[in-house]
Amino acid sequence: MVEAMVQRDLWKETPAVKGRIARYWDSRSESFKEQRDAELHSEQHQLWEQELLSHLPQDRSLRILDVGCGCGFFTLMLAEHGHRVTGIDLTGSMIRKGRELAQEYGVAADLRVMDAEHPDFSDDTFDAIVTRNLTWTLPHPAEAYEEWIRVLKPGGILLNYDAEHAKYHRRNGLEGEEAHRMLSGAQMDECMNIYRMLPISGWKRPDWDVCILKQMGCREVTADDRIGEKLYLHESAFSVPYPIFRIKAVKA
Predict the structure, then answer these.
(1) Coiled-coil segments, which residues (predicted)?
(2) Do 12 and 81 form a contact (C-beta atoms < 8 A)?
(3) DSSP-assigned beta bridge partners for residue 113
(4) What does pTM read for this prediction?
(5) Structural domains of the chain, with CATH
(6) Would you call the peptide bond into 57 cis, given omega within 30 degrees of 0 as the criterion?
(7) Confidence check: pLDDT of 210 > 60
């Protein structure tokens, strides 16, 4: 934990990195829309739907924040169930593609360009926060967690689905990964360069996440490192070759 905090402070001095990350994801927005559209039409839709709803209250419409929403996979899915969902992403082109998908699906979704590490909402705004494949890309994940907890209502639920992508990419590269089959050579090179710079790729997760959320006063903090076995029953265009974990926490 001490090492993680030291690295977090060092990264405060490198704001240009975030712009580089945003430009990289901007270059992938078109292929991301295609992947999310296909995923919404696949068995993954139902599997993720069952997973998310199993952790959320079913007796009322919730105010939900989808952090790092990309093209809105979680946002659209939860909005279809009557929840008031706001999706935020650092990349404007991702949000534009997400709005296109929402229109195509006839779903009312509030999608905004916003920094996941600095969500511009009042304290105690949301009943739940969901996020997928985001935390491992953040220069300052501890600060992001602080902000997410801030905007959660007391008793609100955080569901974070992630994997140690950057650590595996450092070791193995991207060749042959189904999730990266649409990347150009230049995109793949930039992807690897960014991954190598991220401090979080050197931390032990999800242990680090559980530890810091407990330090922030959250209760019922748990990690399930086998959730991927339930969500990806066989290899597909949406599966990744790394163990996916779920981190769940409740704001005290």
Answers:
(1) none
(2) no
(3) 89
(4) 0.86
(5) 2-250 (3.40.50.150)
(6) no
(7) yes
